[in-house]
Amino acid sequence: MQIVRRFRLQALFCALAVLVCGLISRPFAEMGISDDGPYILMAQHLATTGHIAYNGWASPMMVWQLYLGAAFIKLFGFFFTAVRMSTLLVAVVTAWLLQRTLVLAGVNERNATLGTLALVLSPLYLMLSVTYMSDIFGLLAVVTCLYGCLRALGAVTDRATIFWLSFAVATNAVFGTARQIAWLGILVMVPSALLVIGWRGRPGSSELLGWREALRERRRVLVAGSSAALVGVVFILACVQWFERQPHILHEHLAIHRGGGLNILDGLFHGSLELPFLLLPMVVLFLPELRRDIRYSVKVAFWVSAAWVAIALILHATHQAIRPVLEPPLGDWVTRYDGYTQTLNAGEPPVLLNTAVSLVLTLASLGGLIGLIVSLFRPGEVSSGDGDHQPITWPQICVLLAPFIVVYALILIPRASTVTGVFDRYLLEPLAVTLLWVVRLYQERIRTRMPPAAPFLVAALAALGVVMVHNMFSFYRARVELAAEIHAKGVPDASVHNGWEYDFITEIHHAGYISVPPEGAQAYSYVSTPPPSASARPTYRYDFTPHVHPIYWTSFDPNLCYGPAPFAPVHYSRWPYRTPGTLYVVRYVPRAKLPPGMP
Fold it and tell me: Tens digits of per-residue pLDDT, 292-329?
């Protein structure tokens, strides 16, 4: 037991599990995945020149993320997978730290390990861990800040409390340069921790103090902590001013779009359905609670179902772009298809989770959510956990974390009001906070130790995550292979539409940056692009890539546009199915309008 505690073996197991699951999914493909292609080219530019230069597709600041990616390029040479492995390293560290954070919050070691694995082996976390997106970097900033705040709350001396508060501010300031929303740690979480510290009085005391008594008893801590937070705010303002002066960046607007109320309702509705699914191994453990008070469970189930149906009908009646009501509903990274395959936007991608499986996942998610709600109103004994620190109380947890969740949700509302809406990857930070609440609630209200079924539920979701990551990268490798086949016939890259990620890389190679419309970035970086002719199907975000003039299009459907082009289709592996996925090349223009020499 002493060896386990000294070396934190269970936290190390969580970290190694992320590494193993990430690697066995074969996460390599030499093209951009979602937004990460332009980011990888930025890391390449930094490694080559020593300077950060944005290329038109970054709204996150990405500073320390770029330096880490550039370091991997220096060590291993430039290729997409080498840069993405820097994210996997950060994901491994985040998994270790998340397990320790749960223990500090009063969760026993076994439950903390299972809870951590439920999040870090989920499809969403695994997919983002092997790309160069900024989400995992932002999550590390938030988890590190929370860890520092909990250590400060559990410290037994003023000096230790000040040290951990300063640690929380410093790490959140630096790590937040990758993704600005993570700075809510300094702006919200650290002030909340100071409020709890003043409220608790001297370390180890259960007496609640008023403001005057708190200032007298813990003046040194409150002054030092407030000063550290103020220094962090100054650092944030300086970084924001620097970022706003950089050319070719995207601006994230905080104003709610006119007429975006229904989009906000849509985002809240589907986001609330997605949260229990992303924590399914933990949420399902609350299903037995439905039997403890059947009458009350039926009432809760009725009102939850009624609200679910009513909102779905409202969205349908207002002709909103209807997203699925079955799990997973947000439809961005974790979908019923093979990961991020829908970005090709040409034909119907192969389905991984059929309707029957989605229905079972939906019933399990909603049933577990109802059981969780029922357990909130059932009295239970408080478990002390087995960590080395005095567990934080529920009121203190709420004071520490509730403001962070509220402000985070308010910042997402302007994004939710747009047509693109909220993506599932935006839920990573709320997921970490929700995980703490859910696991500790189960430990205190139901059972001190999670049942033997919990590891199998975690393993099942991890298997789904590995399958989704494998199939996603297999699909992207097929696109790279198909592009190579087309170029071998003398077709230039600007004449091929291989998904918008491929077009973005092509545009950067030709122009140096992506041509974003003036409302999203600086006007001088925009080149007006007329829409294609009425007979042609417009490519996704064609106006962002004026140098791309496709005559061939990669597609799931061989009969799309003007039919098959004379290129062999490419088949790619899809776990667990024997039938592979297939990609075709179709003509984007009629045969008569093909340039001379084109096949």
Answer: 878 888 888 888 888 877 877 777 666 555 556 777 87
Residues near 52 by beta carbon (within 8 Å), at least 6 away in sequence: 42, 45, 46, 63, 66, 246
Q: Which two tokens stand for residue 179?
A: 């993704």
For 33-63, the pLDDT digits (tens) are 989 999 999 999 999 999 999 998 988 999 9
pTM above 0.85, yes or no: yes
150 within 8 A of 210, measured Cβ to Cβ = no
Token pair listed for 315: 């969205």
**What is the Cα–Cα distance from 496 to 551, expressed in whole angstroms?**
6
Q: Give CA torsion, residues 493, 496, 498, 504, to 10 deg.
A: 50
Q: Are 80 and 44 in contact (CB under 8 A)?
A: no
Q: How far is CA 305 from CA 283, 325, 487, 562, 585, in A?
A: 17, 12, 53, 46, 45
Q: How many helices (H) and strands (E) does the chain have?
A: 21, 4
Q: Which helix (H) or strand (E) holds 331?
A: none
Q: Report how far residue 599's alpha carbon sits from residue 594's, in angstroms, rounded to the nearest whole number.
A: 8
Question: Rounded to whole angstroms, how far apart are CA atoms 242 and 520?
Answer: 18
Beta-bridge partners for 497: 553
Strand 496-497 to 552-555 pairing: parallel
Both structure tokens of 486: 């087309």
Task: Tell me which residue of 148, 233, 147 sits closest to 183, measured CA to CA.
Answer: 233
Report the C-alpha gap between 257 and 261 in whole angstroms: 8
**CA 390, 394, 399, 401 torsion: positive or negative?**
positive
Q: What was the pLDDT predicted at 204?
A: 47
Q: Cβ(294)–Cβ(371) under 8 Å? A: no
374 in Cβ contact with 296 (< 8 Å): yes
Q: Is the Cβ–Cβ distance between 466 and 21 less than 8 Å?
A: yes
Distances (CA, A) of 360 to 333, 336, 354, 367: 20, 13, 10, 10
- How would you write 439-459 as a 3-class SS string? HHHHHHHCCCCCCCHHHHHHH
Tell me the domain boundaries of the chain. 471-593
Q: What angle do CA 85, 90, 95 make, to 5 degrees?
A: 125
> What is the residue whose two structure tokens read 């087995």?
386
Give the whole-angstrom CA distance, residue 203 versus residue 390.
Answer: 10
Report the chain's C-alpha Rg in angstroms: 25
Measured between alpha carbons, how far is 592 from 33 in angstroms, rounded to an integer?
A: 34
Q: How many residues does the chain have?
A: 599
Quick one: pLDDT at residue 8?
83
SS (H, E, C) 268-321: HHHHHHHHHHHCHHHHHHHHHHHHCCHHHHHHHHHHHHHHHHHHHHHHHHCCCC
CA distances from 471 to 132, 149, 338 (A): 18, 39, 6
Which of 465, 453, 478, 543 is closest to 504 using CA atoms?
543
Give the pLDDT confidence of 106-153 residue by residue, as tens digits: 999 999 999 999 999 999 999 999 999 999 999 999 999 999 999 999
